[in-house]
Design a protein that fits this description.
Layout: E1 19-22, E2 28-31, H1 37-41, H2 51-58, H3 60-85, E3 98-100, H4 104-133, H5 140-172, H6 182-187, H7 208-232, H8 242-273, H9 280-283, E4 285-287, H10 288-294, H11 296-306
Antiparallel strand pairs: 1-2, 3-4
Helix pairs in contact: 2-8, 3-4, 3-8, 4-5, 5-7, 7-8, 10-11
């Protein structure tokens, strides 16, 4: 009967299981063990943790497949599309005359966002999909080292990405406002389908596709940045509940998947599909015929201003 009066006491919970492995036969590394003394001393009630959140995060294979599809599968599908459809060529070829489109500061800002973003996508792929898609291709020790390095680089590049991305969002937002020509641009699929004679729809400084990417990048980029900071520096946001941490991680994963898809398409459209498009973010200038064909309304305004 004495045992019946005893009260169960919940032991402190660690954020994730402790994993020990050695790097180059050196000192063992312990991953997953929190170094926050406040977390070690606290207790929790298992019944208060959302089973829905846990169920989603425990679906490792599903998450891996989503991350894989958002990066690799979309890239492969778009490559096949380009091979079948071909690039969007300039109807009148290059004029040889360049006109200013982006300032030097804008070009630098773009690459301050783009380079960390690519690093975050690649390292995020290893972290999120590596267990299913990469681990079978290498030894366990090599895979653990790859994941450890990916986590380090992911955390390092997150901060400059967030800072540069927020500046870009604020600075470029006025160029991305909806216009009446955007609906027709989508209806014509931007003139990128090479069936018959391509029709190049009207577009201002930014076409409807670029605006869609910008606002997707803004929405999900802010979600990624906020949840990333929350997970990296939980002490900055006060007491973080277990459910709060799980929800932040889920939002981070979903936002990364969506933004990964849009980023891959954006890279293809800017660097591969649009002939002469890459020049914009290398020199800040574009060919006159490229401007006439892809951003005719903006080009007409530029011409009026130079008269």
């Amino acid at each position: 009967m004495a045992f019946a009066n005893e009260k169960a006491v919940h032991q402190p919970e660690f954020w994730s299981p402790v994993v020990e492995h050695q790097i180059q036969r050196d000192i063992p590394q312990y991953l997953g063990y929190t170094d926050n003394a406040g977390l070690l001393m606290s207790s929790y009630d298992p019944s208060s943790v959302s089973s829905g959140y846990l169920g989603f995060l425990q679906s490792a294979e599903m998450i891996s497949n989503l991350v894989f599809a958002s990066v690799v599968a979309v890239a492969v599908l778009f490559a096949v599309f380009v091979l079948i459809n071909g690039r969007a060529k300039l109807s009148d070829g290059f004029s040889g005359k360049l006109i200013p489109r982006w300032s030097v500061g804008d070009v630098i800002l773009h690459w301050c966002v783009a380079i960390p973003c690519i690093v975050l996508i690649l390292t995020g792929f290893v972290i999120g999909a590596g267990k299913v898609w990469l681990a079978p291709m290498m030894t366990q020790a090599h895979f653990h080292s790859l994941v450890y390095a990916s986590v380090v680089f992911h955390n390092i590049f997150a901060i400059p990405f967030i800072i540069a991305a927020v500046i870009l969002m604020v600075k470029w937002s006025k160029l991305q406002m909806p216009e009446s020509c955007d609906v027709k641009w989508f209806m014509a699929l931007g003139g990128y389908i090479n069936l018959g004679k391509p029709k190049h729809p009207d577009a201002g400084f930014a076409n409807a596709g670029e605006k869609a990417f910008f606002w997707c990048f803004t929405l999900f980029g802010l979600a990624l940045g906020a949840t990333g900071l929350l997970l990296l520096f939980p002490e900055m946001f006060g007491t973080l509940s277990k459910n709060g941490a799980l929800l932040a991680l889920i939002i981070h994963i979903v936002s990364a998947v969506v933004l990964g898809v849009f980023s891959v398409v954006h890279i293809y459209m800017g660097a591969v599909m649009s002939e002469g498009g890459m020049e914009n973010m290398l020199s800040g200038k574009c060919d006159e015929n490229w401007a006439k064909q892809n951003h005719n309304l903006w080009y007409a305004k530029v011409q009026d201003q130079t008269k």
